[in-house]
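Per reviewer request, we include the raw input and output of the structure prediction for the construct analysed in the revised manuscript.
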Amino acid sequence: MILENTFFEISDSGDFIRIELISYCHTNAELDWDKNWIIGFVKVKAGAFSGEFKTDFMTVDFVSFKNELVKLYEKLNGIATFHTLESQVEIKIIGDGIGHLKAKCEVMDYAGTGNKLVFEIDFDQTYIPKILNQLDEIINKFPKIGELK
């Protein structure tokens, strides 16, 4: 099953990180764990740096990030973190309590041995509803399959 143009993005002033999902990796797998992997791309622009790379995500990565982001939006203070099992993507959104947010991003093009890019994107709380809607779309199109133990 191929689903196009399903993504979430954090952006401001031309800089961005975009997580774009394509399809489940192993639809015919026997184990639920394997069925929950999603093929995707990470696209970034940070100052003079830009690029993209392919990586895999777990369905549950997006659910936990959405839950943390909802709490951050309610209080505007704290941290919401998106991270992948193989540490290829980490986004920490930090709120200052008055609506200013900073996304501290770290991406690695190959799991474990790749090149790293570390950058920040400053934005405000008005962007969070759009990101939450994008996460809802991801969660609806790529729901958790079975039990993950």
